[in-house]
Write a structure and sequence with these properties.
Length: 267
């Protein structure tokens, strides 16, 4: 059901995820607020990069965060503890074998998870079983095919394509954002509403340039170097030029743009 996480689990990736979450908190979570006493399932919480904002935005909701990796859960628990947050419970669980009774949760939240799954339809169908009637699901995913930047670089574009191909080889979909409406609708949810969340970074937005262009996206591509070279997808010099060119878009005359997609639906 799941593929090997293409970005790895080392400390650099954990840092990148947290930089991304902090930079994008308002954009991704701005419309996500849960009411007093709501029971929320965060499916696939990873190292808790999104859990912090989710919990702070809904301090009177009760959040259960699950992940299949015990190591990631330990990191997430420590982050939440350090932040002084007390409305999150962590549990090791597989999202295809949920250890919860039907109609347990008022809401489900899924962020940057479906892109790594071989059968997201099955996962969405399984998550639906633990939602109460009238409950909602929120899904957020990126779409690497939405990337464009200045100055243009064929090598940078190829490096991004390599990441898309690596995920596809394992059964994932790095361009899944554009498919959220049909995917969620086919899983039997209703009132599906999808919003594009556009990242635009230029020299007038230094926080976005540093937090997203440099520390999130370019760092993500830089992190797949070993896999790309080992598989012969690009030669080392060409790949390094592609990475340099991505970081180049963070210079004063550079521009970077990317689109996330956020879907909300009910059962």
């Amino acid at each position: 059901m799941t593929q090997a996480y293409v970005h790895g689990y080392d400390v650099h990736e954990n840092t990148r995820l947290c930089d991304q979450a902090e930079t994008l908190a308002d954009l991704l979570h701005g419309t996500t607020r849960y009411t007093d006493g709501s029971h929320v399932l965060e499916a696939g919480c990873g190292v808790g990069a999104q859990t912090i904002t989710l919990a702070l935005n809904s301090p009177t909701a009760q959040i259960t965060a699950i992940d299949i990796s015990a190591e990631s859960l330990a990191t997430a628990q420590q982050r939440v503890t350090d932040a002084g947050i007390d409305n999150v419970t962590f549990q090791k669980a597989d999202i295809l074998q949920l250890p919860f009774a039907p109609d347990t949760f008022d809401h489900v939240f899924v962020c940057f998870v479906l892109e790594h799954l071989t059968n997201p339809h099955a996962v969405l169908t399984q998550l639906k079983t633990v939602l109460k009637p009238g409950g909602t699901i929120t899904v957020i995913e990126g779409d690497h095919g939405s990337t464009f930047f200045h100055p243009h670089s064929r090598e940078a574009c190829r490096a991004i394509e390599c990441l898309v191909e690596l995920q596809a080889e394992g059964g994932g979909d790095a361009n899944i954002g554009r498919t959220l409406f049909p995917l969620i609708s086919a899983a039997g949810y209703h009132d599906v509403r999808v919003s594009p969340l556009v990242i635009y970074a230029d020299d007038s937005r230094p926080r976005m340039v540093d937090g997203f262009t440099r520390k999130t996206f370019a760092a993500m591509i830089e992190g797949i170097r070993e896999s790309v070279i080992q598989q012969g997808m690009m030669d080392p010099d060409t790949f390094e030029k592609g990475v340099r060119d991505l970081f180049r878009t963070a210079e004063p005359d550079g521009v970077f743009c990317y689109t996330f997609f956020k879907a909300v639906a009910t059962i």
